[in-house]
Structure formats: C-alpha cells, structure tokens
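Hi L., both proteins are below.
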Amino acid sequence: MYRSSETALVPVTSPPAPAIRKQGPVGRYNLVTEDVRFESREDVRDRLPDILGKALAMIWIDREFADLFSRDPQAVLEAEGIFLPENMAIEFQKPGTDRPRIVVYEKRPNSNFKLRVLYLQLVMMAGR
C-alpha cells in the first residue's frame, strides 16, 4: 500500500526493518532455535526441562527419533545444538512400562557416584 513518493501528496517512507530477527531451527528435529550451552546445575534445572519435554513428545510420535535418542541421547542433543556441562550425563530409560523417562545426572570428580539432577517422564491422564 506504499506509493511512490514522487506522485504522492504526502511523501511516505518505507517502514523500518523489524527489530526481531527470526531464527531458523538448529537441528533436524527443531528442539531449539539457536545453540544452547548450559553452564551450571541451576541453569540445567531451569532451562533443560522445556527442551527435554519437547524431546519426550517427539519420542511418542516419531519412531526414528525415539530410536536415535534411546541409543545416544547426548549425541542427539548435541546434534540439535544443546550442550550440557562436562560433568553432566543424560540417560534414556524405558523401564517395564511404555512411559519413557529422561534422567540427567551430575558426575562427581574422581568418583563413580552420580547425583540425579532431574528427570522427566510424560504421564497421560484422562478426566471427565
């Protein structure tokens, strides 16, 4: 609806470029829109559950993603641009039920002990 300012009664200038640049997806499965590097346990607890929630949802609906994630969840997250601190590990567990679980552990230096930082598991409930 912009007219040439040569013939307009009132000169009109073009609108400024938008202030927000839309980011494209980082990985194949679009878990994040830009690289995410976690630095601390608190950072992992605050921000990682949202991302892992998306991963769990993908596991329910995408068989290929579920197979990849079950074999090496850390590699899948890194391919998606999600990097955990060096002292953290992630496990995919599917105990005797159909409800998969993702567990994030903090590894202690010079020890085989692992401290569970968080875990996520989808639970579907119906109500009426």
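That was the first. Here is the second:
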Amino acid sequence: MNNSAPGFQKHPNYEVNIEASPAHIRVLVGDTVLADTQNAVAVTETKHRPVLYLPREDVNESLLAASETSTHCPFKGDASYWSVTTDDGTLNDVMWSYLTPFDECLALQGYVSFYTDRVQLEIDGELQAKVGPGWTQ
C-alpha cells in the first residue's frame, strides 16, 4: 500500500531527517517524570527547529488521556494528541504522535513528542530552555 506524503510532491526540496539521538532525555512536569529514554530520535525539518521524539514505551502512559485534537502535516501525516495530568494539574494537548505516518517518515511510528515550552526537557542531565517546536526564521 502506498502512503506517500503529498507535501514532497509539491515541495521536492523539503527535507525531514530522522536520526537516532545518543542523549539521555527526560521530560518532566514539576517533579513528575513523564518520559525517560536513551532511545530518542531527533527530527530536523526544513525551516523548523529540531524536535525530539521518544519511544512511546518510555512514556508514563498512566498520566495520559487521549484528546480529540488532531493536526495534519503534508510531510509526516496526521498527528494525534494527548493531555497529561499530574499533581501539578492538567496540560492539554501537550504530547503528539503520528500513529500512521506517511511512508517517508515511517521511522516516527511508535514515537511521541512533547511541546517543550510547556514541560521541562532535560538532555543529559541539563535542563533546557523552554522553546517549543515550530518554524525558524
């Protein structure tokens, strides 16, 4: 079955690169660890800031609730969203995943990402600045 991304047909020079990250990644809300992995992938995309995706099995799913929110990327596919509830409250639509990504981004299947401007991102033990994903200039 062909599940090719329509975005690459319209924009053949657009790039989405997915590479394994050797870093130890933790995602926290307050003192609650939402995710902890050494098996993340880094996605670099034309005109976007890099985004880390973590294996779903390394996420504490007991804190998640599926949302009805979805978005469409012509390069990666349709994203599903989850909200996270901890003792510190609920963060709506803070995590997303491409459950059935387009063929060109199939490596993202089984991975999730977080809005890093709403959670604390720790890379190799160092807390990162709260910068969310999105377009660069």
